[in-house]
Amino acid sequence: MSQSVDLTPSLTPRYADSLAATLPASPWGRLRPRRAFIPSVDLYNTRYVLGRDNNCDIHIDVLSNKLSKRHLVISRDETHVPYIEDLSRNGTYLNGRPLKECNNKRTALRDGDIISLLAQGNEVYQFKNESQTRVSDEFDSKYVLTRLLGQGAFGEVQVAVTEEAVNLIKEMLVVDPAQRVSVDDLLNHCWLWDKDIRHTYAMLSTNNIHRH
Questions:
Q1: What are φ and ψ of residue 106, in 5° steps?
Q2: CB 163: neighbour CB atoms within 10 A?
Q3: Could you tell me where the DSSP H helices lie in the chain?
Q4: pTM, to two decimals
Q5: Reduced to 3 states, what is the DSSP secondary structure of residue 100?
């Protein structure tokens, strides 16, 4: 059973951006406070480090030393998918789930996700994705929208992939062979065992056999 740790009196986030003139017109995301006296953080840059160290982009001064000097990273990759990565010893939670259970302690961030520090009950921020197009609750819970393919008067077309697929591709692209996902782990990855993926694969395999 998780315990709550009172962080409220000592949270003092600050922005890393030094020149407002160099920033885009609007942020791609926001961190909305879940506790009193915690200001909102607008996300303009592609990478933010949150932690106890004074040099962190989002500095949180906690009276105890349980919060790591570099506790977590919030970033956005070249396809505009936002991520959160746990760098800490004592834990980061996303919607009550420890990030240490995710692949490489890193996972995609979705609009409305709740970020907790040290324990499940210590909700500190809610992530707001200002650049994400919402489709439906069912769609948004399963897919991550990536790059924009095109747009016109009647709408826009974006690439949609599952979070598991995004994480698997990232693991496959690791340069160091020792850190790269193994063949066994690849074949047993949860994305490959997704019923929709397996159904699509079966259909494609059947069509291919019929052609021959």
A1: -140, 135
A2: 20
A3: 137-142, 163-172, 183-187, 195-211
A4: 0.60
A5: helix
Q: What is the 3-state secondary structure (H, E, C) of 48-74?
A: EEEECCCCCCEECCCCCCCCCCCCEEE
Per residue in 163-199, pLDDT (tens digit) is 667 677 777 777 788 878 787 777 666 666 555 655 6
In this structure, are strands 123-129 and 29-33 parallel, antiparallel, or unpaired?
antiparallel
DSSP letter, residue 134:
P
CA 82 – CA 28 distance, rounded (Å): 9
Cβ neighbours, 10 Å, residue 128: 18
103-121 residues labelled b (16+ CB within 10 A) or e (exposed): bebbbbbbbebbbbbbbbe
Q: Are 18 and 107 in contact (CB under 8 A)?
A: no
Here the tokens at position 177 are 């062979």
Burial (Cβ within 10 Å: 0-12, 13-18, ≥19) of residue 72: buried
32 sits in which H/E element: strand 29-33
Which pair of tokens denotes residue 175?
A: 């340069």
